[in-house]
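Hi D.,

Good news: the full-assembly prediction came through. Inputs first.
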Amino acid sequence: MLKRDFFARSVHEVAPELIGATLLVDGVGGTIVEVEAYDQGDPASHAYGGPTARNATMFGPPGHAYVYRSYGIHWCLNLVCGSGNDAEAVLIRALEPTAGIELQQQRRGVEDLRKLCSGPGKLCQALAITGKHDGLPLDQLPFQLKERREVPQIVTGPRIGITRAAELPWRYGLLGSPFLSRVLRSA
DNA sequence: ACCGCGATGCACT
DNA sequence: GTGCATCGCGGTG
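Then the structure:
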């Protein structure tokens, strides 16, 4: 299990190490295959411009979940990193489903495994992550984060769906995975 | 393969 | 009022 110390480092160290780790919420989830890093002073980050009610969790201690509503419809999950109060977080963008697949299919209304968790909004729907998870510690139920066993091959590229600082190659993916939100070519 | 759009909430100007 | 760290659908190559 990943402990809080794991997250108490620069988001740029933590983000690539999350590829291959296992994320479960109430026993449902899979292998992390795609993430994005957002750091302090990043114009694309919710924390850019200082603390607000929405981003308060990002300014709190590492090892906690930051969950926000996206486009009024979806939820997105971040894992807070850094030494504390420095507003760094990793956006979880895609999983390869491995646990509770039937439940995920039911929640998503789709059968195709590649469509269950291939996007930040999709995986929150599949794992039933909502605003009530915002601020919860990652080393306690309902969360379970398991360290990867082997170092996977990782591809980097620009982040997705942002306009500011879009050129920064802070998206990390598992090489060749069919469960990514979009194809990732080396940058 | 890409492009446009609507749904819907809320932080911020 | 504007702009999103999105998704799914329908249109066009």
